[in-house]
Amino acid sequence: MNVTLQVNGKSYTRDVEPRTLLVHFLREDLALTGTHVGCDTSQCGACTVHLNGDAVKSCTVLAVQAEGMEVTTIEGIGTVGDLHPLQTGFWEEHGLQCGFCTPGMIMAAAELLKHDANPSEEAIRHHLEGNFCRCTGYHNIVKAVQHAAGAMQGKQAPGQAADD
Ligand code: FES
Ligand code: FES
């Protein structure tokens, strides 16, 4: 059956099987392989994307359930020349080792920062509970999110960036 989704601002229509998971649609039909599959129990969060602005585990959603919706993946959040503050934060604070969990972490953290511009360490840890990292011990991931929160607040602070 045909499904049409907006992915990273672009409309895609594909013929899919009704059982196709959103994560497989993204990776296999659209070749957006930044969204990872890290488990088969919906626990790891490596597959996290935004669906109409909310973070979801894309292994728990059928592609056809997302018909007409807007999907944002890690490929749509920043570019090499214009990184999202979270991407910069993970880079600056060494928030990754193998990087497998990182796209999902960033998508989950981006949702948090939309609702809480200055989250506490506890709030960050709580929000990322559904995202597993098998390498870092989480400490630098929390620092990366704090780094991004600070940068985003700095950007938005009144009286700043008067030269642009
Ligand atoms: Fe979706 Fe692990 S692949 S939660
Ligand atoms: Fe390796 Fe998180 S950096 S799983």
Short structural summary:
The chain has about 160 residues and is α+β, with helices and mostly antiparallel strands. Helices cover about 35% and strands about 15% of the residues.
What are its keywords?
164 residues, single chain, 5 helices, 34% helix, alpha+beta, DNA polymerase, domain 1, 2 domains
CATH architecture of the largest domain: Roll
The total strand number stands at: 5
Biggest sheet: strands side by side, in what order? Answer: 2-1-5-3-4
Distance between the termini: 48 Å
Bound heterogens, unique: FE2/S2 (inorganic) cluster
Point out poorly predicted stretches: 156-164
Radius of gyration: 16 Å
Class of secondary structure makeup: alpha+beta
The CATH class of the largest domain turns out to be Alpha Beta
CATH topology name of the largest domain: Ubiquitin-like (UB roll)
Rounded mean pLDDT is 94
- Which percent range fits the helix content? 25-40%
* Number of helical regions: 5
Question: In the CATH hierarchy, what is the superfamily of the largest domain?
Answer: Beta-grasp domain
Give the number of domains.
2
